[in-house]
Specification:
Radius of gyration: 34 Å
Oligomer: single chain
Number of domains: 2
CATH topology of the largest domain: TIM Barrel
Helix content: 25-40%
Largest sheet: 8 strands, mixed, barrel
Strand content: 5-15%
Order of helices and strands: HHHEEEHEHEHEEEEHH
Structural class: alpha/beta
Amino acid sequence: MRRLYFATYWLLVAVLVAALCGCGHSAPPRASRNPSPASAAPQTAPCNPPIPAPRLGVCVQQKFALPPTESIGPPQGWDISVYQGEPAFPSSLKFVINQVGDGASYRDPNFSVNCAREKARGIKCGAYLFVRPGDPSGQAAVIRSVLSQTNLPPALDVEVPGSYEELCPIARDLGVPTIAYTAPGLWPGLATCGTKLWGAEWGTAGYAFSGWSSYVLQQTCGTCSIDVDVDHGLLAKAAPSRAETLAREHRELDAHYRLRSELHALIEKHRCRPGEHAKPRSYHTVCGRWLAHGQQEIRQINALHRKGIY
């Protein structure tokens, strides 16, 4: 009996000790109702929007967790893509920068239609490319293919990680003045290669940063139904208007006609004819040059006529 008593006693002691120290298979602890800020903060993955990206500033919005907002007052400029379709342009618009593509393969189907509609309304048409990592020459080819339709410098949207390194190769490949769209919290401070800054400064006055001494455009709302932009000198440096282009091309056409007439007079005076072999070699050298130059002038004249220059 005494042995049974002592065995029972020590068994009860062992159970009591286990309960007090938490040994054995206890239930998992309950989660704290007030987690620390560090554990509660969401983990934001590197921005990698689908193709095509929904808008300029998609990574800006993700980076800074910016809520949707609407700008106040009539817009001065817009940037649009396939997601806005073919919008109605208010009379206050001075320029629209249209998405031409996303990376080297995607082409925005609404670009040409919207650009033509804008120019018909007297609104300057620009093109932007959403830059992706890799294939800078292919991406340069996409935006180069529409430069003849636009009257603003081309723009490169560099906000996706890995796209920053493509800015200089694409800008050099284009070989024309180029705008870079990015934000101060995204741009890693690489070389800017002579590009002009289009800053995403939503709701603020805007400023230059990290390699740019000034900015020519500011996106003031990147989460509106249509993104809003303000001109800070871009339009003053923009490509010439259609009227200015026509005047220049008329001058070019007149110069080609004048030179063609002078060459024709020389050819007739010296009786230069293709295939004549009775004259000295020096004669054929000079005549051949006049004849070839005359044909070149005719090609230039025909090319200008095909563009509608009369």
